[in-house]
Design brief:
The complex is a heterodimer. By secondary structure, chain A is mostly helical. Chain A is 78% helix and 0% strand. Chain A has 14 helices and no strands. In chain A, helix 5 runs antiparallel to helix 6, helix 5 (87-122) runs antiparallel to helix 10 (223-245) and helix 10 runs antiparallel to helix 13 (279-307). Chain A is globular. The model of chain A has no long low-confidence stretch (mean pLDDT 87). By secondary structure, chain B is mainly α. Chain B is elongated, with a radius of gyration of 22 Å. Classes of the chains: A mainly alpha, B mainly alpha. The interface between A and B is large, with 54 and 44 residues.
Chain lengths: 314, 299
Amino acid sequence: MTQFIIQRIYQTVIVLFILSLFCFLLIHMIPGNPVLTILGDEATPEEIRMLTEELGLDRPLPMQYLSWLGGVVQGDLGTSIIYREDVKDLILKRLPPTVHIGITSFIISIVAGVPLGVIAAVKRGGWIDGFITTSSNFSMAIPNFWLGILGIYLFALNLGWLPVQGYVSPTEDFWASQRYVIMPSLVLGLSTMAILARQARSSMLEVIRQDYIRTAISKGIKTRVVIRKHALKNAIIPVVTIAGLMLPNIVGGSVIIEQVFNVNGIGRLVLQSVFNQDIVVVQGCLIVLAIAVAAANLLVDLSYGYFDPRIRYK
Amino acid sequence: MRTDTSLGKNEVIDSPPQRKELKRFLKVFLGRKIVIFFGLILLAVIFTAIFAEQVAPYDPYAQNLGNALQPPSAENLLGTDSLGRDVLSRVIFGARTSLIVGIISVSLAASIGVVIGLIAGYFGGIIDSIISRLIDAIIAFPAIILALAIGAVIGAGMWTVILALTIGLTPSYARVMRGQVLTVKEQEYIKASEVIGANNIRIMFKHVFPNCISPIIVLITLNLGVAILAEAALSFLGVGITAPQAAWGAMVSEGQRYLVSNPNLSFAPGVCVLLIVLAFNMVGDGLRDALDPRLRGSI
């Protein structure tokens, strides 16, 4: 297990290194002189000199990277070109809604998706299976921005059950917060839920066919117990893998969801900064999201040890 | 391991096992009504996209402010948008945009990914390690955010979307290809070619590649849906296809402003995205089952 953990951490560090290089080089990928692009044509030589110095563009490339990385490690992500505010503070301010909606949707997709897949597998061929399989096919194909708009139209504008847009923090008003968060989380988590249900169904079908399941059933153990105790334990492992792979999906989807539901999270911050060409903020958000996804992935990998004892004893 | 299931184009054409293989493929593929149904939908969409000028009732760019935001009627089956343009015509031209972006980015990703995967799998060692870590890094990063980053650097537009999608989709091909190569590499006929002195490139493209084709074909079909969905999302965000070009995502976004009075503006293009993505997914699933039953659920 220790070796497995060390190997995974090592791989995560390498992945983060590659992503940090990409984030860093972003500013150098701007065609022409990035400072001129950022400041526009009316910039005075003085302004150009100052921004060049601020961004450290006058130093050799490896030096720039090292000092940027050193800053990132210490939590210094630079200063926004447009807002003239510390990028770290900007991100910290925008992080809570994104984390709140992201985690809620991830939990919903697992808690609903896995049992749905298991039920479909157990009732294979029946109408329940047909319904679950068809719904998950649809859920994977529905554009989430469109589903969000559809939801707003139906549940907020027509039925008036939920607020139209926006976000309220749970510390501010717990119940109001739930009403704001439920729809964005469902819309964000739907495709992940469908993919997990599909994976749970197919790996469950695979496991049910095994000899030891037949043995357990012929020993007279109740089907429900066999499913829960014998089959699910083995079927869940590939589902955990897929759940880990879905994390980038949820982080990426949050940009879209925040735009649809008017939530001032980190996704919208990225989007606004892209339109403002506020490269320093884009870089900061990117590296924070990369670290978040990598860390979450690492956690999912480590949870294998819990789900699959074989890894623990290797 | 999967030699018996490939289309085997490098073998003698029309040999009996080949014909049997094709027959089995067609039987499974065309045996499912749902696959035929969605296959026909796809053909219809592709036809519409190619002949958009002939199919569309009006010019999708012709503005008529006096006739703006009209509900569906006999003249404008899906109504008109805020600039008085015919929504149906724009939806039809949107199909062309979606397919162009999807086809270009998926072809690029597949060609690059296949070559990278072949190289990684065939040579192994340090080359494989470097490529595999790069693949890990790209897969760990949300493709939409990658697209935004590229948008921040070179601005919004069709090529931003294509570039981002190509980068985002390439790893899946490289990964599948690498896995296939590792399996095929151990087969005896590859060893035999090495023994008779065939060079690496010849072995890779003549012997290894054809035997890895089935999962790649399936992946291409499924990824066309992924690419179209992503293009729609990016155009919705304003980083993708920009006005005035007709794109479904951008149309949904424009329509959002008139959701109360003209919900149709957002609904119609969204249904199109759903339908075409669903069709690619279903046909992809059908292809997978028909090409190799053992691949079921593996991609």
